[in-house]
Amino acid sequence: MAQESPGGRPSGFRLAVERLFQRYVEGFDDFDTEKVLDCFAYPVTIWQLGKGTVFADSDELAENVEALFEVFEHEEIAHSSFHVVEATSWSNAALVALSWTQERRDGDVAMEFECRYALRRNDLSGEWLIALVINEEEVSPR
């Protein structure tokens, strides 16, 4: 189990998780489909609204990401931020829980929710990627 190093500083694993999700946030904040897609290991499964969908490759997932961008535009979401609630790794697998806040341009909170992720470390690059997303059923719109 990897979480924090002695002295309370984030471990290398925890920092890698934060870097992965910071890239993910930047992709959504910039409406950059490719940046978001590069955060995933394929095939990837996304569970939301009680249904799991498997995306075989980035082309299949791109349609879902573009639909999320449309929701963000409609809800005027301009910035997302996350907090790592829990992060645990074993070899090339990891489980991560994040709490998310999404804000409008004026700084008002649009949504708050938690999400769970299974990560897989790329065998060649050593980079952590998202292999499974489980969205909470209850999202608190504001």
Which labels suit this protein?
7 strands, 142 residues, globular, disordered N terminus
Tell me the structural class: alpha+beta
- Overall body shape: globular
Radius of gyration equals: 15 Å
Helix content: 25-40%
Q: The biggest beta sheet, please?
A: 7 strands, mixed
Strand runs, count: 7
Overall average residue pLDDT: 89
Please report the number of helical segments: 3
In terms of DSSP E residues, the strand content is 35-45%
Helices and strands, in order, run as HHEEHEEEEE
Can you lay out the helices and strands and say which pair or pack?
Elements: H1 12-29, H2 33-37, E1 40-48, E2 51-55, H3 58-75, E3 77-90, E4 93-104, E5 109-121, E6 128-135, E7 140-141
Parallel strand pairs: 1-6
Antiparallel strand pairs: 1-2, 3-4, 4-5, 5-6, 5-7
Folded structure, characterized:
There is one protein chain. The protein is α+β, with helices and mostly antiparallel strands. 29% of the residues lie in helices and 44% in strands. The protein is built from three helices and seven strands, in the order H-H-E-E-H-E-E-E-E-E. The chain has helices spanning 12-29, 33-37, 58-75; strands at residues 40-48, 51-55, 77-90, 93-104, 109-121, 128-135, 140-141. Strand 5 and strand 6 (128-135) form a beta hairpin. The chain is globular. It starts with 11 loop residues before the first helix and ends with a strand. The relative contact order is 0.18.
